[in-house]
Amino acid sequence: MIKPDIAIDIDQVVKRYGSVTALHSISLDIRQNEFFTLLGPSGCGKTTLLRCIAGFEEATEGAIKLDGDDLTPLPPHKRPVNTVFQQYALFPHMTVEENVMFGLLQSGWSKYEAIRRADDMLKLVQLDKFAKRKPSQLSGGQQQRVALARALAPRPKVLLLDEPLSALDLKLRQEVRVQLKALQRETGIAFVFVTHDQEEALTMSDRIAVMGNGYIQQVGTPQEIYEAPANRFVADFIGETNLLDVEVLSVVDGTANITLPGGTPFSCPAAGVIEKGKGHLSVRPERIALCAPKKGDLLAKISDQIYLGTDIHVKLVLEDGEDMAIRLQNSESLNVPPIGQSVGLKLEAGAACLLID
Q: Which of 33, 169, 266, 319 has the smallest number of Cβ neighbours within 10 A?
């Protein structure tokens, strides 16, 4: 039974290529009017999953439903979804307007209806003044918006986006992120976005599915993924983190009592069921403060400093030889000790999480 707020129901989907399994029993619910991101490194299966939704790949096992209807028997052109790829594939000999109209005319729309719809879509992406230009006369960001207008024109129930910002430079990519999220809100349809860029995922998504080795590692809001990673893979992939080897003394009601390097006792949340013994502590660099070294503190020596403008990246070596990094917000009053100086480290309450592999 499909819940009314679910747009796409992915149920136990497996994809094999001969003896290689690209997707291992993937199950996901993607909600109506949601910006949902599939995030992971190259080869993790995210694009394969997107292509299964689009119909370009056939799932070996499992089912994919849209609004409760099974998509399995439908070829790509019969599915009420559209895809925007890394390469926008605009027709160079056509104008912007003609590019947006093309799919509509092929689907049986009248020329009058197609012109009106293309005009509406170009206004939506703020390119109506460029309707008569050719793609070669547009910037990369403008071409990307034409591809979006073309994909949205037939009123798909879901829009699939396969790393559509990867060809843009950093500044333009940041600008288009904002436009893309605003466009999703305005159209009110589900966007399924594939990327390997953690910052893109965190800034644009309502929810994120982190993928690794063909498995779903964790699903949650950007804040949940960042603040409470489910395992070491997620913590290491999302943003920067310090992963410290620690001694686990006990885990009671989701709270772990551990010993930090150097013997300092510490309590923190635990992700999953973790036995006594060795564990991995994830601590985000911006959640650590420097202090004067004193007995009982986590002690380290500064090995390097990197000026990044908005903050200072400080590299340290702990007493047991483990490397650690912290980020300090840049301000007029900030005074970072010199390289080689010994310092104490304070971990914010709730700043760390004990992880399983």
A: 169
